[in-house]
Automatic annotation (TrEMBL):
The gene is aqpZ. This is Aquaporin Z. Keywords: Cell membrane, Membrane, Transmembrane, Transmembrane helix, Transport. It is a multi-pass membrane protein. Its main location: membrane. InterPro entries: Aquaporin-like (IPR023271), Aquaporin_transptr (IPR034294), MIP (IPR000425), MIP_CS (IPR022357). The chain crosses the membrane at residues 14-35, 47-70, 100-120, 152-174, 181-202, 227-249. The keyword tRNA-binding does not apply. It comes from Microbacterium psychrotolerans. PROSITE patterns: MIP (PS00221). The lineage of its organism: Bacteria, Bacillati, Actinomycetota, Actinomycetes, Micrococcales. NCBIfam families: PRK05420.1 (NF003838). It is found in: Cell membrane.
Length: 265
């Protein structure tokens, strides 16, 4: 028998990205909608997981997805990460479009499954979830805005800075010689948890356009009208991080080798 390992095909990689993004959105947004304020309208909220639980849900889904599908696709699960890796020279630009499409599809499937479950909820659960914005990102006041009433400027700063930090950490822990591959998913998942703990009150935390699109398509006109912020500025943060990493942490005078993915093994 041959021990030769057959490399993943393009289809394998795209399916892995879709599955990983599906898991992230279904787990994170699902936790926010089903469990954050359970039981509904309870002043004491004895069972709800609140901000901390939702933050952990997003982090844990990334850990699980990175271990399961990272060796196949690199475990991006986020357009801002894909573009940030490309800007750092770790991923081929020509492959970014396919990855981003797969991520958006996977995220949309995640929220669609939540809707299908919600159809069978009691007390108009689905209608109430949609009226509240369906865990979409937002700024300003209103049912679908910032949980803490923060305005547009705060959302822009938070998304650029926190996405940049996220991508910089990913680039560090997945480096081919300096990274610690076996622990990389844990570092990445814990970082995403911390990011949510910081920014859920600001704008419900995006740092991932696929997550934002997936929630907004069921959140109604309000979240859709603000969606551009959570597409543009996480991407700006990801690109900024890629450029900074390349300038600060790669040998001067040389270009980092383009890798098919920032592989997590």
């Amino acid at each position: 028998m041959s021990d030769t390992t057959i490399p993943p095909t393009t289809v394998n990689r795209l399916v892995a990205e879709a599955l990983g993004t599906f898991l992230l959105v279904f787990g994170g947004v699902g936790a926010a909608l089903f469990a954050a304020n359970f039981p509904a309208d309870s002043e004491s909220n004895p069972l709800g997981i609140a901000f901390v639980g939702v933050s952990l849900a997003f982090g844990l889904t990334v850990v699980a997805g990175a271990y399961a599908w990272g060796p196949i696709s690199g475990g991006h699960f986020n357009p801002a990460i894909t573009l940030g890796l490309a800007a750092a020279g770790r991923f081929e630009w020509k492959k970014t479009i396919g990855y981003i499409i797969a991520q958006v599809i996977g995220g949309a499937l995640g929220t669609t499954l939540i809707v299908l479950i919600g159809i069978f909820g009691t007390d108009n659960w689905l209608a109430n979830a949609q009226d509240g914005g369906f865990a979409s990102n937002g700024y300003g006041t209103g049912d679908f805005g910032s949980p803490g009433g923060f305005e547009l400027g705060a959302a822009i700063i938070a998304e650029v800075v926190l996405t940049a930090i996220f991508v910089l950490i990913i680039l560090g822990v997945t480096h081919s010689t300096r990274g610690t591959a076996a622990l990389a998913p844990l570092a990445i998942g814990l970082t995403l948890t911390l990011i949510h703990l910081i920014s859920i009150p600001i704008d419900n935390t995006s740092v991932n356009p696929a997550r934002s699109i997936a929630a907004a398509i069921y959140g109604g006109p309000g979240p859709l009208s603000q969606l551009w912020v959570f597409i543009v500025f996480p991407i700006v943060g990801g690109l900024l991080a890629g450029v900074l990493h390349r300038a600060l942490f790669e040998p001067k005078g040389t270009l980092p080798p383009v890798q098919a993915e920032a592989r997590v093994k």
